[in-house]
């Protein structure tokens, strides 16, 4: 099937339906699904599910029969309706380009973005599928625009859509991951239109920092800080296997809190981990400080009002207090279900608890597409 044929199919599936599409996140280690309803000016959680893969992700996605059985099992965990989905390509398959474009007289914004992308990618531009998201700033009324461009190779897009088809899912849209996360944060803080809120999403190799201002995405950037890097530093310093070091971090966190009693369990080990990881944590602190300066420059002085943590490191012991030492704002663990009223979550199904619930941020943002925040 060609890209044009797939687009035609997706447009057909965008026709009104009784149930909204399911947010489907085929993450590194598990499938995360969320479905929501838009009722009476607010969101209601219909169903949520998070199921670990029974085999390596690449093997599962290349095995249509096993993939269908697995997806069916995930859908059976909660009262999902239909098989229409909104999904997002894996981060490795999408290049996010923060660009400043100048919209000339008689030129549309899309035309200006297209020209800027062509200049950025050169002759390779024609090999990509391009989408973009406008970034909010205090100077939005001028001819200059700040945008986040998502560029993915056409064959990667086709392969991903084919995978969804093989799973007997019906893709109605492919979203931009940072836009979906920004949508979730905007829903969580719908009334705080003048505030900037940030999410630090920890990954295995890298982490991602997303900032919204009001209800609009302002910034999404990649940070060289992840579980593999931290485990590697501990393994090298203590002469351990990386897997053993990673296990220690999951058990003891990334360092002892200041003022911990000397008789606290494993206090010497936790102090050693803190010392080993101090350079990495200081580099993260510098990144957060630079982000605060950038936000203030784009918002005429507004600062980040709170920082959410999500992803693998968000489940580490004392992670909130350790990150709070690095940035002078309140730090919270992200609860994606905070986007829904308590009374609207009762029928959602069993997500298998931690770590499943903390894995649902992207799927929730995908499911929220098309409401008050776009």
From TrEMBL:
Pfam families, A to Z: PilM_2
Transmembrane regions: none
Superkingdom of the organism of origin: Bacteria
Protein name listed in UniProt: Tfp pilus assembly PilM family ATPase
């Amino acid at each position: 099937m060609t890209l044009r044929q797939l687009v035609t199919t997706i447009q057909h599936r965008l026709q009104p339906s009784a149930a909204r599409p399911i947010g489907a996140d085929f993450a590194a280690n598990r499938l995360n699904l969320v479905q929501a309803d838009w009722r009476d000016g607010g969101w209601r959680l219909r169903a949520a599910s998070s199921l670990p893969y029974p085999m390596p992700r690449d093997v599962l996605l290349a095995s249509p029969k096993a993939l269908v059985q697995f997806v069916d099992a995930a859908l059976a965990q909660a009262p999902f309706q239909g098989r229409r989905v909104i999904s997002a390509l894996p981060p490795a398959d999408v290049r996010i380009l923060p660009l400043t474009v100048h919209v000339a007289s008689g030129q549309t914004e899309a035309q200006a973005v297209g020209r800027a992308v062509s200049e950025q990618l050169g002759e390779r531009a024609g090999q990509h599928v391009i989408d973009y998201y406008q970034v909010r700033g205090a100077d939005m009324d001028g001819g200059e625009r700040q945008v986040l461009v998502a560029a993915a190779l056409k064959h990667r897009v086709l392969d991903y859509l084919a995978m969804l088809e093989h799973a007997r899912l019906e893709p109605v849209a492919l979203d931009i991951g940072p836009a979906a996360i920004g949508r979730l944060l905007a829903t969580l803080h719908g009334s705080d239109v003048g505030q900037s809120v940030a999410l630090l999403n920890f990954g295995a190799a890298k982490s991602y920092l997303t900032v919204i201002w009001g209800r609009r995405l302002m910034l999404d950037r990649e940070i060289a800080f992840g579980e593999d890097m931290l485990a590697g530093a501990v393994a090298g310093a203590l002469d351990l296997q990386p897997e053993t070091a990673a296990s220690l971090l999951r058990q003891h966190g990334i360092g002892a809190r200041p003022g911990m009693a000397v008789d606290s369990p494993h206090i010497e080990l936790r102090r050693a981990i803190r010392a080993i990881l101090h350079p990495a944590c200081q580099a993260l602190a510098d990144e957060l400080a630079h982000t605060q300066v950038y936000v203030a420059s784009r918002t005429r002085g507004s600062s980040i009002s709170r920082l959410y943590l999500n992803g693998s490191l968000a489940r580490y012991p004392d992670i909130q207090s350790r990150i709070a030492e690095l940035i002078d704002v309140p730090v919270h663990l992200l609860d994606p279900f905070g986007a829904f009223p308590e009374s609207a979550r009762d029928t959602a199904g069993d997500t298998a608890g931690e770590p499943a619930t903390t894995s649902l941020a992207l799927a929730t943002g995908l499911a929220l597409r098309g409401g008050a925040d776009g």
